[in-house]
């Protein structure tokens, strides 16, 4: 199956229960698909709903209406109606999420933090650790840090550990939430290469990328969410 992600007529509002039930419309009528091997970038101004769309696909936000169809092998799963346990299964095998923020796990060395998603997918630990070391080296994380837990790392070092962790495993669908924010040019170029390698491996990617240079180098298509936020406000 070529289509890995398909959103049909998705709508999202927030209701602020502690503030007189004020309703904030975010998006409506969201319709687009992402095919295997392409990188689609969400465009539109700040507050238009890009992050909310990514969070709905990852199952962090519920949507009020519509379908979010994710291809898992020969099966199609509607994330919009899936049980939490099903969503956790999808996150292990099918949907990866790369953000700029690392959730630090106490006492676990950086190399094991990076290797963990690959081990969870069934790769033997030694092989996964070797791939993790290779990725940390590519992302210019100093070798002296690999055996330390990332809690004390600089913001940029933690971000690069997180990128390595996000790219190491094979997820047929990868969500990119500003993965290059505040990286230097050399490391941005590494992320561009990693995205191109994933494309060649047939991974479907959907991203938010404010960096226009990176966006131009990796985006096959831009989906502008302005029309979806206008539809919600109407
Ligand atoms: N958890 C939440 N509770 C209430 N409102 C929210 C929540 N998350 C997002 N919003 C609102 O939804 C709208 C869309 O926000 P979102 O973060 O999706 O936009 P964005 O396009 O990603 O913006 P940016 O480019 O600035 O990150 C905003 O008006 C925001 O205030």
From TrEMBL:
This is ABC transporter, nucleotide binding/ATPase protein (Phosphonate). SUPFAM superfamilies: P-loop containing nucleoside triphosphate hydrolases. InterPro entries: AAA+_ATPase, ABC_transporter-like_ATP-bd, ABC_transporter-like_CS, CP_lyase_PhnL, P-loop_NTPase. Residues 5-234 form the ABC transporter domain. The keyword Cell membrane does not apply. Pfam families: ABC_tran (PF00005). NCBIfam families: CP_lyasePhnL (TIGR02324). GO terms for molecular function: ATP binding; ATP hydrolysis activity. Belongs to the ABC transporter superfamily. PROSITE patterns: ABC_TRANSPORTER_1, ABC_TRANSPORTER_2. Keywords: ATP-binding, Nucleotide-binding.
